[in-house]
Amino acid sequence: MSVSYRAVQWNAAKKAYDRRLIVVIALYFAVFFLAASVAFETSPLILAMRACGTAAIALLIFILSIGPLARFSPRFSPLLYNRRHLGVTMFLLAFAHAALATLWYHGFGVIDPLTSILESGAAFEGAAQFPFQPLGLAALVILFAMAATSHDFWLRNLSPRVWKLLHLGVYVAFALLVAHVAFGVLQGAIWPGFAWMLAAAAAWIVALHIAAGVKEWRADRVRRALAADGWVRVGEVERIVEETTEGRAKAVVIDDCRKIALYRENGAFSAISGVCAHQGGPLGEGKIIDGCVTCPWHGYQYIASKGQSPPPFFEKIPTYELRIEGRTLYVHPQAKPPGTPVPPCKIAGLEGSPS
Amino acid sequence: MRDLHARDRRTGSSTTAAARYLPAVLVEFLVQSVQLYAIVGLLFSLAFAWKGAAVVDPVATNATLGFRVLLLPGAALLWPLLAHRWWKAALAGSADIPSDHTEHWQRGSERLRSVALVMWLVLGPALVVVLVVAHLARSNGTPSTRDATQLPTVTSETKLMEDSR
């Protein structure tokens, strides 16, 4: 959430997250150097290059796993909280790998390094001589674009849709990196287990994303009955009360794709957009903290009945009208403009507790 | 402009223009274009971080120095877009922030999901092909002694030529 921009919006949770990240990377480097220096007789610079490269690809696989895993279980949501720091760290590791490789293999010639990389394998005669270095370079360019635009300034100024589209490039970068490794280091006389590990990692990422996509698609296909005047039936009030607890929400989908979060607070329900204005996080899976709906992804907050962040913040989301007819709860499918206050829909006999 | 084909002639490499996956002229053009784009971008990014950011987005008016430093790589990368936005905002006297923090986000998210689905439908089989081809290339035994990151032939030969001068 932003009133004015800072370089990094650290808080206690993010600092703890980053400390763990640094410790894990340091441990990885220590183990890698220890094992590799015993197994291979090679220069420390080559070892450093390989340590950075393997750490970057392992971190990328971890990063790509977090999103779909969080779709299956909210236990993984805390990992999403500071994912951009993981991403920038991964880019820095990949950049260090590329810089060391460029220095070692292309840095001391008469040709400038970039030309040398693009010319590498220029006369390839088969798959084993495939020019794998340009593949790595292409992946690095994509990762650079993502790291350089990771600040919220870019999210706001490119628009969330364009920003997200740009950051979908990570999948292309992943495919390029798999090809870079498959036609690069795996073609050498190394332990064949590395090839199987790479294949398993690629299969894991593809399967996980397809499974999460199918789960989302199924959840969004629920057909909801319409009342004569166009309001959409959500369900029986007793059932919805059973399904929710104070300060939590029921997520519903109308028109096949529009997500709405019905928040229960102080014995009443408020309906807001189920998509966070920040990065499209699932507001229906958040909870009310300090009187504000809190997005499970990055902690953006909104007052449910007003559809806007508490002052001095200015993020806004659409709100929806609710009504009860008999014992059935309906929502009006027409969203109110972002930040439009809508009075909560009181449920008779439902007691609330201050959150 | 350096003659990259001449380099092949000097080294006696059998590389021909037809065998290259990227023609030498294209490589030269690509490298020079990237260098020019990067130089202009670097200069622009300094001006943008100092003045332009606050013009296109008023929230950046009192931003910290650390934030301005973090802007540099992105501004250098996206300088044509930002130059356009800066120009428009300066002419209009007010910033024009893209406004899809609204219901459009929902529809946009749906479209993005379709993009992601198509991407996986393409990338999934592509990854299988890459891994199978790479595995077969390895099984053929051709590159068994090859250091994966050895110097490309052309470059190493050129180096030797230059060293022997």
Walkthrough of the structure:
The complex is a heterodimer of chains A (355) and B (165). Chain A has 355 residues and is of the alpha+beta class. Chain A folds into two domains: 12-220; 232-346, 3-layer Sandwich (Rieske Iron-sulfur Protein), CATH 2.102.10. In chain A, 49% of the residues lie in helices and 13% in strands. Chain A has eleven helices and eleven strands. In chain A, a hairpin with a 2-residue loop joins strand 9 and strand 10. The model of chain A has no long low-confidence stretch (mean pLDDT 86). Chain B has two domains: 1-98, no CATH class; 109-165, no CATH class. In chain B, 71% of the residues lie in helices and 0% in strands. In chain B, helix 1 (4-11) packs across helix 6 and helix 2 (24-56) packs parallel to helix 4. Chain B is extended. The chains are: A alpha+beta (355), B mainly alpha (165). At the A-B interface, helix 4, helix 5, helix 6, helix 7 and helix 8 of A face helix 2, helix 3, helix 5 and helix 6 of B.
Task: Record the SSE blueprint.
The complex is a heterodimer of chains A (355) and B (165).
Chain A: H1 12-39, H2 44-72, H3 77-80, H4 83-106, H5 113-119, H6 132-148, H7 152-158, H8 160-167, H9 169-182, H10 193-220, E1 232-236, H11 237-243, E2 249-254, E3 258-265, E4 268-273, E5 287-289, E6 292-294, E7 301-302, E8 319-320, E9 322-325, E10 328-331, E11 345-346
Antiparallel strand pairs in A: 1-10, 2-3, 3-4, 4-8, 4-11, 5-6, 6-7, 9-10
Chain B: H1 4-11, H2 24-56, H3 65-77, H4 79-92, H5 103-139, H6 153-164
Helix pairs in contact in B: 1-6, 2-3, 2-4
